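Consider the following assembly input.
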Amino acid sequence: MAANFKDKAAIVGIANTDFSKNSGRSETQLAAECVAAALRDAGLKPSDVDGMTTFTMDTNDEIEVARAVGIGDLSFYSRVPHGGGAGTGLIHQAVMAIASGAAEVVVCYRALNGRSGHRFSSGVSGAITTADALHWGWYTPYGLLTPASWVAMYTQRYMHITGATKDSLFEVAWTTRNHAATNPAAFFYGKTFDRAEYDAQKKIVDPLSLYDCCQESDGGSCVILTTPERARDLKQPGVLVKGVGQAAAANMESMTSFYRPEIAAIPSMDLAAQQAYAQSGLTPDDIDAAIIYDAFSSIVHWQLESWGFCKKGEAHDFIMDGSLRLDGRLPFNTHGGQLSEAYIHGVNGIVEATKLVRGTSVNQPKKTVNHALVTSGVGVPTGGAILGKM
Amino acid sequence: MTPEEKKVFMDKIHAFVGMEMAPPTKGPDDVNKAMIRHWCEVMGDANPVYTDEAFAKASSKGSIIAPPAMLQAWSLEGYPMHSPSKDEALLDNQRKLHKVFDDHGYTGVLGTNCTQEYFRDLKPGDQVIAHTVIDSISEEKATQRGIGHFIETVTRFTDQNGEKVGEMRFRVLKFIPNESNKVESAKDEGKPEVPTRIASPRGHDNAWWWQQVDKGVVPIQRCKNCQTLRHPPRSMCGECQSIEWDFIESKLEGEVFSFVELHYPKFPGYQYPLICAVISLGEGTRIVSNIVGCKPEDVKIGMKVKGKVEQVDEKTMLPQFYPA
C-alpha cells in the first residue's frame, strides 16, 4: 500500500550555517542558528513551529533547540536512526506529521561539530559533552540524581499548593497493590499492604517513600496494530485508537522543568489530552477506565487533572472518593500498574487498556468499558491514547 | 599534526615497511628441559610429553619435546630487552619505528594479536633463530584506546640447519592515549581518592558559568539585545533570538519554591542529611541548589534564603543557600 504523501507538504524555508573545520561554538548553537535562519528564510516565527525532527545521533535535544530558538509548544518530535541514512528520513517524518495533522510546521535539523568536536573517525571513545549531559550537570552537583528526586520536587510543590496529603498517595499505591494481588502475572500477586505497612517503609526522597515508587522489572510487552478493515477479519475483537496525543509543552526540560511559572502540574500532559480529546470527539465523561502511568504515586494526581477527570488541584479529593477502585468512577491500573504489576515503561499498560476494552482484564470492572485511556510517562515529553470498541 | 606534518610522519613510518627488525637473533639458550619445565609449571600445562622422559619415550614423539607455543621464547633476548641502548643509532629497527611514533604523540603500545604456525617439534638441543620483518603498518584507526596504527611483524623461525620450524605474525597498536584512559591509569597509581560530588560536564554553553562559580560569583545570563535574564544558560535568547549575551552577578537572595530531602540511595561524595531546592531568586530566575545551615524539618516553601559560593569538597565549588 502506498503512503498517501503526494502534495501533502512543501519545503518553504532553507538555511545553512557556515561550514568550517572549527566552528568555535557549540553544536546546540549551530542547531539554533540554522533553525532560526530557515525560519527567517520562510518568513515564519519560532512560535509557528510545532514539530521538530532530527537524527538519533544528533546531540541536540529537540526541546533544547526549541527553548534556544523560542519555539513553544511541540506536538510532534521524532528521531530517525542510522547515521547518514537518516537524511531524507527527516523529510519523510515531516510529511507524515503534516499529512496527518500531528503538526503544521515541522523543523528538520542536524548540527554537529564533526571535525573540531567528536569525530566519527575517532570511534566511540572519549568523553562526549552532549546537551543532555550538560542538562544533568545543573542538578548532579547538588545531589539531585534520581527520578524519585526530580518527581519529589514537583510533588512537594503540588502538596503545598493544593493541600493534598499522603492519604491520597497511599490510596493510589494501595489501589494498584489490591489489583496486583488478584493478578497472577503481577510481581505483587497475593500481597496486599495496609496503611501501617505503607507508613513504615523507608523514605526515598521526602515526600516519597518506598511504596510510592514503582518497581524495577525485567520483561517485555508488545501490541500490534493494523487497519480496522483487517482487524475485523482477525481472531480478537479489534480495539480502535480513537485519539492519540504527543506533547512537549513550552519550557520543557527532561524531568527537571523547574522554571515554568508553576510546577505543580504537567502542561505536557494537558497538551496531550487536548489533542486526544479533539481527535476523538470524546470528553472525560466518555472514559470508563484508565491506565495512568504510575512510576510514582503522585504523578497520577496531575494526570487525572490533565485529562479533566477533576479540576486542577482537586485530584486528592477525587482519589479519596474511591474513584480509582474497581467499583469507582474511573477504575484504574487494573493490572496493578507499574507500582505493583511490573515496570515495562508503560507498554504493559497499553496491553491492559486493550484488555479493558475487550472486556478481558483479570480485574474487569462490572460496568461496560467503551473507552479506556492509557498514558505515557511524565516529567519527560509525554502522550496518551484513548482506545475504544470497534 | 597539520596535513603536511601528517604526510611527513606517514612517509617516515612507511619507510620501515619491509625492513628486517634486527639481524637474525638467537636466544641465550638452546632448547632445554629446565626452561620447558618452568614454562609448563607457569602455564599449568601438565602434558607429560613435555616433562616425563619415560612417558615421552613411549609416545609417538619418541622423546621430550618443547611445547609448540614456546616457539618465540627460544629467541627472546631476555631481561636486557628492558634496558635498550641509549644510543639511538644502536637501536633495532622496531625500536626506531616505535620512537618515531612516540615522538608524534603515539606513546601508547598494546599487543593485539599473535598467530603462530609450527612446522616441526622442537627438542632439547635444538637451536632457534628468529628472522623478523616489519610486514605492514595500517592506516590510521580509531580504537577505544585512542587513535593509532597497527604494526604487523612476521617472524620466521629457523633451526641450526637453516630449516624453517615455525612462523609468527604479531600485531601491536601504537596509539595516542585517550584522556579517559590517562585518568584511569592515574587513579590506579595514586592513593584512593576521597569521593567528591558529580561535577557538571563543562561544554561551550555552560563552562563560563561554572568558571564564575569557581571564582565565587553566581552569574545569571542576560541577553545583550533585549536584556532578558535566563537560567540555565542557553546559546540563544528565546525572546528575540539574539546570540549576544553577557551576565549579571546574582545577589543570591531568594525564596524556596520547592524542595526535597534526599534519603535513599545515598551517593558517595554527598553529605547527608541533604536538601535540594528550587529557589526563586530576586532577579527573577530560578536555580536549583542546596539548603544548608538549618535542620531539614525547618525548610519550608516560601522560606527566605541567602546564598554564597562555598567549597563543598576537595574539588567542588557550589552555591549554597542558608536561611536568610
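Residues 164 and 316 of chain A are 5 Å apart (CA to CA). Ask yourself how this observation constrains the way the partners meet.
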